[in-house]
Amino acid sequence: MCEAYWFPLYAYARRRGDSPEAAQDHTQEFFARFLERDYFDRADPDRGRFRSFLLSSFKYYLCDEAGRARAQKRGGGMATLPFEFSKGEEMYVREPVHNETPERIYERRWARTLLDRVVDRLREEFILLGRLEHFNNLKPCLQGEFDVPYAELARRLETTEAALKVGIHRLRKRYRDLLRSEIANIVADPADIDAELRHLIAALAGKS
Asked: Which residues of 170-206 are buried (b: 16+ CB within 10 A; e: fewer)?
């Protein structure tokens, strides 16, 4: 979970004014302490979503002067976690320049990270089936419509238009199933999945 969702917190730290090095220090040490002290056990499902708990915990950490002082060089003397900070900074600098709050950046990056994890899971399934090229050709349908006509794509995949449409329908259904499964991992009650999904959509649309 930490390895998957470190980037939204890194983006939050950067948007609040931290340098790349400081954001790296803070993110590394926060998660090291988070794991070392079993903060996951403190997450109370009756007090909000896990993503909110994680951000609140990070804010508390950032206000902790003792914790700030211990962030010496990257890693702060604690266990180094395998976060790809160079990749994270590359993603962060692609964020549009605007006056959005760090909280809104966090929510949007959380949503985007979750969707990326779903696409990665779907890709892995196609790889196991030996159909990675098929997935790469159909992947655009997960974000919208194709840039090429169905007839042309069907010829490219050596299938019929009817079979292609069935394949797209099944791909989208599997994507939705995996999305709900991913959300289920970060909510305490399955009844909260739909509400979390609506929040995710709103975050991506800039309405959170």
From this structure: ebeeebeebbeebbeebbeeeebbeebbebbeebeee
Q: From start to end of 17-131, where are the E strands?
A: none
* d(C-alpha 20, C-alpha 56), whole Å: 21
CA dist., res. 123 & res. 117, Å (int): 10
Query: Are 163 and 153 in contact, with CB atoms under 8 Å apart?
Result: no
Q: What is the pLDDT of residues 78-127, one digit of tens each?
A: 555 656 666 667 766 666 666 678 998 899 989 999 999 999 999 999 99
Q: Which of 118, 96, 95 is nearest to 197 (CA)?
A: 118
Cβ distance 167 to 159 under 8 Å?
yes
C-alpha span between 205 and 119 (Å, rounded): 19
Q: 37 near 79, Cβ under 8 Å? A: no
CB 50 within 8 A of CB 43: yes
